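Q: Hi! First time doing this. I have a protein sequence and I read that you can turn it into a structure. Is that right? Here it is:
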Amino acid sequence: MKRKLTRYWKITPGENGFLWREQKLNECIAIGWSDIGNVKGISKEALRGKKHRGKPLKRFAVNQLNDFVNEVQIGDKVIASASGKGIYAVGTIIGDYKFNRELEYKHSRKVQWETTFWHPVGIESLTLSKSLYNKFHGLSSQTIRELDDYEWNKFSDRLNK
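A: Yes, that's right. Below is the predicted 3D structure, encoded as structure tokens:
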């Protein structure tokens, strides 16, 4: 099966965006579950056997780590966004997965940030549809969420206005 050229991802730089500054300065996006170690080359099935804080990884964590490590690719677009805080930046993934021991959240990918904001752009100000809004805010927002072409275009259109 051939992969479509570009995929679109909303990724949270730490809970409520608390690691945005670190990630911006390091030109990357990174996610948690660092205590499980480097997962390069590990399948989704193998991730299920990993432990986080002494307990098996929960299904949502397995899915999100797998997406970040195995699905996100160089050339994909990324939105750095945090629930309740807003949109920090939009960029393009330019590096493969790396377990970067210098970062607080160590599962990382290099990003070329094309658009960044002095202050986060509030999600509410974009007047997104409820389903798209929920990918950025609230319990269903998760650490990493894929947006389809239509959602990306709607988001981009609203952000540019």
